[in-house]
């Protein structure tokens, strides 16, 4: 008998699986992800279905949550980041506007855009919410597809083992990962 047998039916299955995966992911991201001292690396996937500006917003929030970016730290200018990511400057400007509306960054006259003081806690909370939503979608699809809780758990365990130490974070460069 495993921890899921007590809730073998009903909507609690998804919550139990999600809780288990959330704990594993939290443990994983806090212990085995390699970090580098290289500058922040933001990548966009135009074919992902997620708006490019939203990808930039998410990655900056994750970088703040991971403390790759810290309160008071200067962000790249719109022009610099648009050149790094190879997107239109208006896309980066829109991402910065969203981050400013969310209270994550602020513009300091004569200095540029910096991370706000309270951004760390807000970004950590939002990172968990974003990851939770994405995991819930995958778990829902797996359950609707007929996979059992045990099969899903086995897949998650296998994937976590295969990713062990091989995931670049926002604060690492792609050549820092084997």
From TrEMBL:
Gene Ontology molecular functions: DNA binding; DNA-binding transcription factor activity
Entries under Gene3D superfamilies matching the protein: Winged helix-like DNA-binding domain superfamily/Winged helix DNA-binding domain
Residue ranges annotated for the HTH gntR-type domain, each copy included: 50-118
Any Pfam family: GntR
Residues making up the signal peptide according to the UniProt record: none
PANTHER family registered for this protein in UniProt: GNTR-FAMILY TRANSCRIPTIONAL REGULATOR, HTH-TYPE TRANSCRIPTIONAL REPRESSOR YTRA
Protein name: HTH-type transcriptional repressor YtrA
Gene field: ytrA_1
